[in-house]
């Protein structure tokens, strides 16, 4: 049973996930969306390796499309919304990545496979997978599917905006175009347009030996589509699909006019029929020849032309579409060069600053400083009150830890050297790293990897001990298991009401192992902040595992320390300038000279 239904597709708001990257095809789909007046691009994400975004144009405006490594890494909301896929990856990878997408996208309706050379057994497997999930697929070797004004999937109709306009693909017509050949489907679409008609929908079935979408399924869909008044069908020698088409017409299941042309009659002039361009286009038996299939179609009541000219003339003779007979207004999309940077944080709109899509004054009026901080770190406005309160507490908690740490010392020395505020602050900030201030992000990486890979805390502790490696976020000079750090207790309280609390529980599991070895190897402030922040971002804010991994990778977890401690460093700068003790110098007794042994 076919799941290819035009009525469903006409009602669809297309949300496409593109498997692989093909800039020409992707840009053509965005041009179609823009020219058709859609509010937003239909392509929501690209699954590929390499960059985290790709840049395209939507009309004259530059847009970015997010890139994910796998279908499973797509945000949960997008997995729910996605309803179409386009696979432009290589043929050998089609089965694996299409199956992964079908399994990851619960509301998927259909898709198209662009690649040629998909192994035949892979195509057969994929057909079974798609059918079991109620999904239709065109291809392999398909240039896609189009409903004028509604959805364009792949290269069908052309990859330049003017091609789409000249082929009248922005407003619905009455002629359905069905073709086994990708090149010919575009040729026929153009012929339909130049003859004073327009297309109701068009689909390239694919030129491989085992196409996933059959002519029979598409003709039945065209018969059920009230917008379609006639069907233009292009086939080739090889296979017996056309006999199924003939039976549909003969049995009365398809009553609308079917105009057909079967290419390859020249093969009858050869003692052994040659292989045409597509894998399927070879007649191994007389019944598969173009001449035999043309005769069978005509006998069943199909208008099957013996020449391509007859086929086009039959299309031209169909009743005209009134709206399609007018002159085509070819819009020119004027594009600037791509910007030097992509920025999702702020921009000017009518000379007013917009931050995260909100006017600056409104943004400042409606949000606390903590919410502004975490929203700007994440690159989107947050919604969780718990997260906002936690960030506010962290910013207050981390502001200073005495004048003894390297960052404060550097700041004070620079101040006493007579340098300015920015120089002193910079010298303090430059000491932040793996030994001072960078432990929050390191701890976040440890907790995230532990939960993601279902690591047993005891095994993690033993593994790192064997490597003589400290565990970031564990250990304190003053506090012990029997005298816990009150700051840590306050931090952990922010995750107490979360249903899962996976990262906090993992960190506490590690602490249970380390304190059994030594009482002061407790979860410290850095480790607690990392664990609770991971839990709040995941459970309260809804960030995916992939988004959390990215935040760890870009060191976002250190941002709270850097921002808060900057206030402390500046305070020490002002304090030293007020005291004005002059240039700081070490005395000889502060430096212990060593002598290099001759034996070393």
Structure description:
The chain is of the alpha/beta class and 600 residues long. It folds into three domains: 6-325, Succinyl-CoA synthetase domains (Rossmann fold, 3-Layer(aba) Sandwich); 346-382, no CATH class; 406-579, no CATH class. Helices cover 42% and strands 13% of the residues. The protein contains 23 helices and 17 strands. It has helices spanning 6-10, 23-35, 76-81, 94-104, 120-132, 161-166, 182-194, 215-224, 241-250, 290-300, 308-316, 360-366, 369-378, 385-397, 406-416, 421-429, 439-452, 457-466, 486-492, 502-517, 525-540, 545-553, 559-579, and strands spanning 16-19, 43-47, 53-58, 61-68, 84-87, 110-113, 136-138, 145-147, 151-153, 175-179, 199-204, 230-236, 258-263, 303-305, 346-349, 352-355, 358-359. The strands form three sheets. The chain has a seven-stranded mixed sheet with strand order 3-4-2-1-5-6-7, sandwiched between helices. Strands 9-8-11-10-12-13-14 form a seven-stranded mixed sheet, sandwiched between helices. Helix 17 crosses helix 21 (525-540). The chain is elongated. It starts with 5 loop residues before the first helix and ends in a 21-residue tail after the last helix.
Instruction: Quote the distance from N terminus to C terminus.
Output: 83 Å
What topology, given as strand order, has the largest sheet? 3-4-2-1-5-6-7
Secondary structure tally, helices: 23
Task: Give the helix/strand class.
Answer: alpha/beta
CATH class of the largest domain: Alpha Beta
Radius of gyration: 33 Å
CATH architecture label of the largest domain: 3-Layer(aba) Sandwich
Integer count of domains: 3
Report the average pLDDT across residues.
91
How would a textbook summarize the main sheet?
7 strands, mixed
How much helical structure, as a percent, in the residues?
A: 40-55%
CATH fold type of the largest domain: Rossmann fold
Kindly estimate the percentage of residues that lie in beta strands according to DSSP. 5-15%
């Amino acid at each position: 049973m076919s799941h290819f239904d035009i009525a469903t597709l006409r009602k669809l708001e297309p949300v496409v996930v593109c498997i692989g990257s093909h800039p020409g095809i992707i840009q053509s789909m965005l041009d179609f969306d823009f020219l058709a007046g859609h509010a937003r691009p239909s392509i929501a994400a690209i699954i590929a390796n390499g960059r985290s975004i790709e840049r395209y144009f939507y009309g004259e405006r530059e847009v970015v499309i997010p890139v994910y490594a796998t279908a499973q890494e797509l945000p949960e909301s997008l997995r729910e919304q996605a309803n179409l896929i386009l696979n432009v990856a290589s043929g050998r990878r089609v089965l694996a990545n299409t199956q992964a997408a079908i399994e990851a996208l619960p509301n998927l309706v259909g898709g198209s496979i662009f690649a040629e050379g998909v192994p035949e057994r892979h195509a057969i497997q994929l057909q079974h997978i798609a059918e079991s999930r109620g999904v239709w697929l065109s291809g392999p070797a398909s240039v896609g599917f189009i409903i004028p004004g509604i959805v364009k999937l792949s290269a069908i109709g052309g990859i330049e905006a003017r091609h789409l306009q000249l082929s009248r693909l922005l407003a619905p017509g009455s002629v359905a175009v069905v073709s086994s050949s990708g090149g010919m489907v575009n040729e026929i679409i153009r012929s339909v347009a130049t003859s004073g008609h327009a297309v109701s929908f068009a689909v390239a079935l694919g030129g491989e030996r085992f196409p996933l979408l059959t002519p029979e399924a598409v003709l039945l869909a065209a018969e059920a589509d009230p917008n379609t008044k006639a069907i233009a069908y292009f086939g080739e020698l090889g296979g017996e699909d056309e006999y199924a088409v003939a039976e549909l017409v003969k049995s009365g299941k398809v009553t609308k006019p079917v105009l057909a042309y079967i290419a390859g009659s020249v093969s009858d002039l050869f003692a052994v029929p040659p292989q045409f361009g597509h894998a399927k286009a070879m007649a191994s038996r007389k019944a598969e020849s173009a001449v035999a299939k043309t005769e069978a179609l005509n006998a069943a009541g199909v208008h099957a032309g013996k020449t391509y000219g007859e086929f086009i003339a039959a299309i031209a003779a169909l009743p005209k579409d009134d709206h399609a007979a007018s002159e085509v207004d070819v819009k020119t999309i004027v594009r600037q060069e791509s910007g030097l940077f992509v920025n999702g944080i702020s921009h000017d709109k009518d000379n007013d600053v917009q931050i995260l899509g909100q006017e600056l004054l409104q943004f400042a009026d409606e949000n606390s400083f903590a919410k502004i901080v975490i929203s700007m770190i994440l690159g989107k406005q947050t919604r969780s009150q718990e997260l906002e309160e936690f960030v506010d507490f962290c910013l207050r908690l981390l502001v200073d830890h005495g004048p003894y740490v390297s960052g404060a010392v550097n700041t004070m020395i620079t101040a006493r050297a007579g340098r300015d505020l920015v120089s002193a602050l910079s010298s303090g900030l430059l000491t932040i790293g793996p030994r001072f201030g960078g432990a929050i992000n390191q701890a976040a990486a440890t907790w995230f990897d532990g939960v993601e890979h279902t690591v047993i805390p005891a095994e993690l502790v033993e593994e790192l001990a064997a490597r003589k490696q400290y565990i970031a976020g564990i250990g304190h000079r003053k506090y012990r298991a029997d005298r816990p750090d009150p700051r840590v207790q306050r931090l952990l309280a922010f995750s107490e009401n979360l249903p899962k609390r996976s990262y906090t529980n993992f960190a506490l599991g590690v602490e249970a192992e380390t304190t059994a070895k030594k009482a002061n190897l407790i979860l410290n402030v850095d480790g607690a902040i990392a664990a609770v922040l991971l839990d709040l971002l995941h459970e309260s804010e809804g960030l995916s595992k992939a988004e959390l991994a990215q935040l760890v990778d870009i060191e976002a977890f250190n941002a709270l320390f850097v921002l808060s401690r900057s206030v402390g460093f500046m305070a020490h700068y002002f304090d030293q300038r007020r005291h004005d003790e002059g240039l700081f110098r070490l005395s000889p007794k502060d430096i212990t000279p060593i002598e290099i042994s001759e034996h070393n």
